Amino acid sequence: MKKVYINSIASISPQKTYDNSMFLDEITDYNDTVIFAQDPDYKQYIPPAASRRMAKGIKMGVVASKIAMDEAGIETADAIITGTGMGCMIDSEKFVSAIIDNNEQYLTPTSFIQSTHNTVAGQIALGMECKAYNFTYVHSAISFESALLDAKMQLENDEANDILVGGVEELGAHTTKVHRVINHIKPEAVTISEVLKSKTEGAVFSEGANFFVVSNENKKSCYAELIALETFNTLKKNRVSETIEIFLKENNITSNDVDAVVFGNNGDVYFDGYYDQLSKGIFNKTQQIYYKHLVGENNTISAFGVWLASKILKTQTIPDIVKINDVKSSEIKTIVCYNQYRGENHSLILLKKC
Hints:
Blueprint: E1 5-12, E2 31-32, H1 48-51, H2 56-72, E3 79-83, H3 89-101, H4 110-113, H5 119-128, E4 133-137, H6 143-156, E5 162-169, H7 173-181, E6 190-191, E7 208-215, E8 224-234, H8 240-250, E9 260-263, H9 273-280, E10 287-290, H10 292-295, H11 302-315, E11 334-341, E12 344-352
Parallel strand pairs: 3-4, 3-5, 9-10, 9-11
Antiparallel strand pairs: 1-7, 1-8, 2-6, 5-7, 8-12, 11-12
């Protein structure tokens, strides 16, 4: 089977990450329970008339995909594969509200058309006139991983050369209120420096779009090689270390060969224990990295973890703001990304330097 390479990256997040020439050089310090993505200049990528008709999630996805495509040096892709847990929530809420307000009569179809989960992938395809494979995965907190796994298998089996893959989430007002009621969002505001010290339930919710061009060709722009990816719907806390060791063994390495591990800690007092046992156990002598204190939590935020790992492998630098411990490696060749959400939908991604 052919190898799989990440040849370009793009991120729109609550931090200024849309500029690939920078690497967390400017940090926005939040003190809130919900944080929104920082907008690039959409006019540079989308005609203003079209932009006005797009919800934020669509605009973020379209722009992030264009940034990734430009960096990879391609004009179209052999496939467009996206992941989203909640889809285009803003338009979904608009349509449902219109149903209620208008007593189910005189409804315009625009919000409904733009509320489907595959709207982002469709808009991207329309923009580049791509009529190839177009698929959207809605698999909760492993939606992005499902999309990436699909792309990986196609590339390994030589079914495509360049695939655009990404994850998109946007915040809707009503949905955010629901998550507050069920304690998925923290009850009090926290700053980025205090997230791991928080002793309350829930996380800081966010939105964003992260896109990658993956290919079976190692190009000059290559960030990382995607070695392996595995997901687990359920996994007991006392089985996590064993599961990761099996995952590494299947790829002919051990925990001692891992130069850095990217954790998905979000400050939830009930579920950060999954990461704590690893940081004190099999990875206690490994450089540990986290990111959700900077960009919050959502169903495809693990894609930002891949963005971060890819950037580290290419630049061979780790910003101090993402370091959990002080362990250092002379060279960063291998990174493992581990994420879970509320004890479910665990994912493991193994990346290596190109």
